[in-house]
Amino acid sequence: xxxxxxxxxxxxxxxxxxxxxxxxxxxxxxxxxxxxxxxxxxxxxxxxxxxxxxxxxxxxxxxxxxxxxxxxxxxxxxxxxxxxxxxxxxxxxxxxxxxxxxxxxxxxxxxxxxxxxxxxxxxxxxxxxxxxxxxxxxxxxxxxxxxxxxxxxxxxxxxxxxxxxxxxxxxxxxxxxxxxxxxxxxxxxxxxxxxxxxxxxxxxxxxxxxxxxxxxxxxxxxxxxxxxxxxxxxxxxxxxxxxxxxxxxxxxxxxxxxxxxxxxxxxxxxxxxxxxxxxxxxxxxxxxxxxxxxxxxxxxxxxxxxxxxxxxxxxxxxxxxxxxxxxxxxxxxxxxxxxxxxxxxxxxxxxxxxxxxxxxxxxxxxxxxxxxxxxxxxxxxxxxxxxxxxxxxxxxxxxxxxxxxxxxxxxxxxxxxxxxxxxxxxxxxxxxxxxxxxxxxxxxxxxxxxxxxxxxxxxxxxxxxxxxxxxxxxxxxxxxxxxxxxxxxxxxxxxxxxxxxxxxxxxxxxxxxxxxxxxxxxxxxxxxxxxxxxxxxxxxxxxxxx
Length: 546
What we know:
The protein is of the alpha/beta class. It is built from 15 helices and 30 strands. 57% of the residues are buried.
């Protein structure tokens, strides 16, 4: 690679200085930095790092994700391949690693710690402590991914502790996932060796976890949005916070990434250097990543912006290579292979019927909350027609179903949910954290069945049934999670089907993203797996009828 130099106002996060400088680069590394007199009309700063993301949630393979992320100044991600692992096991993790090596973008994958996340659902694979230890031994694996089984940590479950011990032995960080833990429980969880948490939804919770020794990753994704609740931490604990998206749909990734958090933090009045620590330096130091920080000897990973107010990214460099310029990606599209695990039979409307035990009965209802992964449990009067519980469109209590995608002939789990607001039709998706069975919500059984069958025929994707006959389906051939097309094409297709969903009446900002978390049992309070309705607070199954 050739040698060259770049001049601009260097933003030195370590020295907390901004000064004109020329950076000399050779063979992808920074050779020297020379301070200059005068001023410049552009600023050079370290590239942004997403400190926790599931690439699969973008519906893009890593190479396609990279093409979009670099436009916004992102040069690296700390990536948990937990989603594809739940579908395809270690082969899925290797698929992500292999695909990521076909782009200069810096992906740092973890070893998924919870596959499956619980024993209360059916996954496509199991990664026991031996499999996790094998993954951790790989130079392509940088940390132990989020330990979602927090009851297992608190109860010192043998398998859970063996996975954590394997990471400690190899001196690799352990990521956390402990929504709602406070006080002594937060301390006990952290003391197991868990060093981060991205699930805080209140400031008090985050402060308890910081007191316990954890670093807090402030999340602003397509479904869970915690920036408003947690941004005070940027100024109070600048060395203890990072930024992440966790889950980012393709239409939103086209628009922004970590740069949006930087701009919002500036608008809140936080110090520029504290913000850039969270966006760049802290994840690099915490995970010991080989990502450049604008020091001599570092990799030439940096961005050039027009000013420190608007933060418009003019250029993004990775390893000394220009990968984005003036809003356009310079990374090429890479053709990707498919990997999948899908085996179930077509369904009938009768499979979605929920018999009622009484002509009048109360039911437990999942209350979805905009912008959160947590749900509430409601007890309401069920609508009974012909001795069956049905959707109550007037009161926005709709039927939800989860279909096992890994084995034919299994019973369908059914329950009820509020706040999706559909007036007709149904939505379905094979993006259903964490086991990625088929999850669907609808106002009638015919529509539910049609939306589900569209995905069975496609072997994965997202679908909208306007009724039993008018179906829109976006296939996701890679594990039922990701497309192989160019990211802009996927974003456009997703926007179209998202619009179709909203035409059915849902007021949710990201209905498919919200839907995908309604099977996530490790987030309280009430969720639905393919095996039944689950009480996340008691960590056990419960009945639909109250």
